[in-house]
Amino acid sequence: MKNHIKFLCIVIAVMLSVLALSSCNKLHFKDYQNNGNTDEYGADLTQSSVFDGMEFDTNYTDPNASSSSKPTYTPEEKEEVNGIKKFYLSVKNLGAVGDGVADDTEAFEKAVHTLKNSGGVIYVPAGVYRLTRGINIPLGVTITGDSPSLKGMWSNPSVLTSAKQEQSASTDFLKTDNFSGSWILVDHGKGDVNGTPAIRVQGNTTVSSLGFVYKEQIPVVNTVNEYPPAISFMSTREYTYARDGVVIEDIYLANPYLGIFVGTGENLKDYYVGQTTNLSLGRLRVHNITGTSLWKSIFIRGVLDTVDVSNINLGYTNFVKSYLQYRHNNCSDIEISRADGNNMANITLFGANIGISCVPGFEGSASIRGTGIKSYAGIGMQTCTGQYEINDSEFAAINYSNYRANKESIGLAVLDDECVHRPHYMFDSVTISNTATGIDSSSSALKINIGKNGHLVLSNSKIKAGNALEAAVTFDKLDLTFTTASIYNTSITGSGTKLALLEKSNITAGCLQFNECTIDDALMTNMSDAKIWYNNSLKTSGGAIS
């Protein structure tokens, strides 16, 4: 009997402890007014929501707000997914107007301040929101809007086969009827690429369904101005993170100088000075990005973790001449510097200086696995050592309407520089072409300049050379290591050009090999070069190449 009583007492004690803990975990707010039932803006603090159990920090006051305009902090139910209700803190409930004229910065700051301790979702309804300061999104807070798109005077990116009528720069590009969905009008940071980004995230968050347009940038004005990134996940001495991860998706870039930056370092134009090299930032996902930038659209630097980049469509959003010229001579649509584990899929790029640019940084290289890439630019893609596996893709050198002043155009440039690994390049089922006009005769469809025992394998592909080229393929070695380029089962077409050009006289025999390839007869003007090997390759006419 005593044991039963003892057991019953233990059960009662446990139940009382659970009830006490449950009471402690209820949503508590500081006592502002009306015995704690409302906050200083008059918002009802007693209603239950998905945020129960989280402590909001509502200690944020706007001394300039009138009593009639004081916003509430009441979460807004937006949708239900798989039985789970989603709630949003709408910036319009916090005083945002979204007309492209009013300064909506404070409404965004109030939303951030409210959710910074609890986490949650900042909802940006359809409209154009002018921001005069950058917004810093803390850990665990997501910002999302309604899917953005351009219309009216703007153009949606596409692969162009003919010239479009030029436009004139005009403030009419900022009329709100040119925009659909949720847009951020950036009105700060002019002249400083290292300034405060429009949206800066600190990890464990998502930025989605937002567009970015800049008030003092082509095509609104007729000059190119530097600006900080539209979206940045950056590690510096001030902001350090550890494997928190970020998702950036459904983003429209109308005219930023720099679209999306992910990585390390405080100086975006210095590739060798960073706070932390090779930083672990967690898995990063950049999906469904549309539009254009003037300097770089997606910039990844100093990241060791996996970065997934997919469903990207970048091209021209307007046809103001100075915009077309600047982008075609200066922009890298996707740039990667000392970043491993990059996965790319379903990417279309048009009209940049370089479509995909891999450059050395922090004395390191870049690695890419890619499929379904289509890049049409002055240089379709260039590597900088590292590990590359790319298939089912196309790299084309173009000079759209002769806007590109740089006379060197290359479909695919396989280049070495600084490397912490043995460089290795594998391309399968790709098309490489250079039919650009107004280019230097030293340009080529495929340029190979490798060393450090690096090896290139190109198989089951097509190489197309234009008439203006001196050679379809140019080959050079950086050093005396055993470096080779082997091309298998590939068709090489062109007229009035050479097949290959060896740029140094001391290149050893067999460094460049064409194995079981089909080569246009007109390209065989230098077939007597014994250093180039033709293993079981044929001319288009059917004759063997000996």
Describe the structure in your own words.
The protein is mostly beta strands and 546 residues long. Among the domains are: 229-438; 441-546. It contains 3 helices and 34 strands. The strands form 2 sheets. The chain has a 32-stranded mixed β-sheet that branches. A two-stranded antiparallel ribbon has the order 8-9. A hairpin with a 2-residue loop joins strand 1 and strand 2. Residues 17-73 and 274-278 have low confidence and may be disordered.
What's the structural blueprint in terms of helices and strands?
Elements: H1 2-24, E1 76-81, E2 84-90, E3 99-103, H2 105-115, E4 120-124, E5 127-131, E6 135-137, E7 141-145, E8 149-150, E9 179-180, E10 182-186, E11 199-201, E12 205-214, E13 231-235, E14 246-253, E15 258-264, E16 284-291, E17 296-303, E18 307-314, H3 321-330, E19 332-359, E20 366-382, E21 387-397, E22 410-415, E23 424-434, E24 444-450, E25 455-459, E26 462-465, E27 471-477, E28 484-488, E29 491-493, E30 498-502, E31 512-515, E32 518-519, E33 532-535, E34 538-539
Parallel strand pairs: 2-4, 3-5, 4-7, 5-10, 6-11, 7-12, 10-12, 11-13, 12-14, 13-15, 14-16, 15-17, 16-18, 17-19, 18-19, 19-20, 20-21, 20-22, 21-23, 22-24, 23-25, 23-26, 24-27, 25-28, 26-29, 27-30, 28-31, 29-32, 31-33, 32-34
Antiparallel strand pairs: 1-2, 8-9
